[in-house]
Amino acid sequence: MPIVTIQITREGSDPARDAVTAAEKAALIKGASQLLFDVLGKPLDATFVVIEEVPLENWGMGGLPVAEYRRRRRSAQAD
C-alpha cells in the first residue's frame, strides 16, 4: 500500500491564484497513482495520495523565504 505525499504551495501554478483547483488535485492524484502502477505495478485502488497545500511563508529556497528569493531573482534578471 504505497502512500505518496505531494507538497505544494497554496498559490498553485499561477501566482495570481491563491489555491490549487480541485481539477488540478485530481490530476495529481491520478498521475501519481498511474506512475506507481506503471513503474512498480502497484494497484490503483491500493495507492493513497495526500496533497498538502503549504502557505507560501512556510517555504524557503536558497536560504531565504520563497517570497524574498523570488524578489531577488526578479531583480537580478532585470539587471
Report on the structure:
The protein has 79 residues and is of the alpha+beta class. The chain has a single domain (3-78), classed as Macrophage Migration Inhibitory Factor. Helix content is 41%, strand content 23%. It contains 2 helices and 4 strands, in the order βαβββα. The chain has helices spanning 22-40, 66-78; strands at residues 3-9, 48-54, 60-61, 64-65. The chain has a two-stranded parallel ribbon with strand order 1-2. The protein has a two-stranded antiparallel sheet with strand order 3-4. β1, α1 and β2 (48-54) form a beta-alpha-beta unit. The longest helix is centred in the middle third of the chain and has 19 residues, at 22-40. The radius of gyration is 16 Å and the shape is elongated.
Features:
79 residues; two-stranded antiparallel ribbon; single chain; two-stranded parallel ribbon; 4 strands; elongated; alpha+beta; isomerase; Macrophage Migration Inhibitory Factor
Shape, per Cα inertia axes:
elongated
The whole-angstrom Rg is 16 Å
Assign the structural class, choosing from mainly alpha, mainly beta, alpha/beta, alpha+beta, or little secondary structure: alpha+beta
Biggest β-sheet description: 2 strands, parallel
How would you write the strand order of the largest sheet? 1-2
**How many E strands?**
4
Give the CATH architecture.
Answer: 2-Layer Sandwich
Portion of residues in beta strands equals 15-25%
Q: Helical content, roughly?
A: 40-55%
Task: Look at the structure and give the CATH class.
Answer: Alpha Beta
Q: If helices are DSSP runs of H or I spanning 4 or more residues, what is the number of helices?
A: 2
Order of helices and strands: EHEEEH
Number of domains: 1
Kindly report the CATH topology.
Answer: Macrophage Migration Inhibitory Factor
The CATH superfamily title: Macrophage Migration Inhibitory Factor
How far is the N terminus from the C terminus?
50 Å
Mean pLDDT: 89
Low-confidence stretches: none
